[in-house]
């Protein structure tokens, strides 16, 4: 997930394969300064890693680390998000858009010394096409692939079944074939037992302890240049207040996800800078539509009343989104409506007055009456069987917003005679994946290209069987949504594609399975006596944590380096962009990307 993944992330499979795999044994550990003189960039995180396998990971923390460990075919300019070179230096499409040819760079090597080639990329995609376990996290990207080949070490050719508008936004980490082909079971291997892990990104993962830390060192051979900090550490904090206290003491360099009160208090603190910018996330209520697998089997114990669209609409109308923004986020957010945040204005959608579900308790009561859930003498809504209408909602124990909104929902829905139990758990993934919930607080980091966050609501994203893990966010499977998804994926006309994406958001809104309450700002802070400068994305008024790329941690300059290098990362990227050759008919079409990964979910 991250979503947070949704603030959680879905992951049922976290077992380790028994196969002996030396993914890390030969990795060259980059030089660093002596331990007592190292410049260490420590980032406080609250989300647990779901998997360190790029084939399984969906949470924001995991996919963000993969962006540091592995190169992707393309990256995204921190200024406006358009495609720039990654492992591929150039690309072209055939006139019919069914064949895409990528030129693979000559100056990328794996950290064990072997060259990164087109064969690594072809093997990565083919494995996802032929192994359902390997397609868990990112299978939507290859579902339309017909054939992938590497005719030579510097040429990758992808043949499609039909045109695909995301060919410059394939957010798939390319892995070294010579190591990963030894994996026995991709649905179980988590890549977290041997370190350092072989990669070709700006950082090399050197150590990991569950719910404690991830440690990375610069890849001094990275083609774009080595990061400036000697070590990057993601340190786990279950409690956000503890993370903020650590920031004040200088024990960590950076904290994200600040509450309004924390941001206000840190704003006047010495040597601390607060970044408050429009975010790329949405914050929503997800309704269990009846968990099911692609083979047709149903599972879980979601409340059957929520299968009635009138009940879902009633809960929607009984939720005061404006109050969520004003009272919970205290203005550090925008009221939610469509699925894509307003930061991505090309795809942003909002319902017109005739479609909009406003906060209207009277209308909510009418809908519940109509659905057959009337109040008894005690003021409690009951069904025809006499059972009270009580729901459960999954809440992330580490997220203060979930707890605060949960209390408001209990108040608003309680006035209607509807009961609500707020289940705040350290691990929401297990009940979520098992379909053992009624509602859940949900959220995803949306990318410039919306394909991925749309794909997680398609029927194809459902798990193959109840025992498997799918890429679905919330078990939604809607024929009309799937039709629109297929149309937008094949549409190269930017305006037409944007219209299709807006129709998909309208469909999600109308079905009532997703109630987007807010688009939270990115509210984060860092120590200026540890970090002299760091790049946001977008460059103007953007976020630092959870970017569509590795720009923040790659660009960060230590405070004692003697130079802030302000804006240097953007300058480097722009210089590279100027040299990109877009060949053939693809030249005018710049596709933006999806996740933060993937996110992501967070």
Counting DSSP E segments of at least 2 residues, the number of strands comes to 24
Overall mean confidence score, pLDDT: 89
Residues in helices, as a percent range: 10-25%
Distance between the termini: 6 Å
* Quaternary assembly: single chain
Percent of residues in beta strands: 15-25%
Low-confidence stretches: 1-22, 24-34, 564-602
Main sheet characteristics: 7 strands, mixed
What best-fitting shape do the alpha-carbon axes yield?
globular
Any idea what the radius of gyration is?
24 Å
Strand order of the largest sheet: 8-9-10-1-11-21-12
Q: What is the count of DSSP helices, taking H or I runs of 4+ residues?
A: 15
Output the structural class: alpha+beta
Could you describe the 3D structure shown?
The structure is a single chain. The protein has 602 residues and is of the alpha+beta class. It is 24% helix and 20% strand. The chain has helices spanning 60-69, 118-130, 177-180, 240-249, 260-267, 309-317, 321-328, 361-370, 400-414, 429-433, 451-455, 479-489, 494-511, 551-555, 568-578; strands spanning 40-45, 74-76, 83-85, 88-93, 99-104, 145-152, 155-160, 203-209, 213-218, 231-236, 254-255, 272-277, 281-287, 333-335, 374-375, 381-382, 390-396, 419-425, 439-445, 514-520, 522-527, 531-533, 557-558, 581-584. The strands form six sheets. The protein has a seven-stranded mixed beta sheet, with helices on both faces. A six-stranded mixed beta sheet has the order 14-20-13-19-17-18. The chain has a five-stranded mixed beta sheet with strand order 6-7-5-4-24, with helices on one face. Helix 6 (309-317) runs antiparallel to helix 8 and helix 12 packs antiparallel against helix 13.
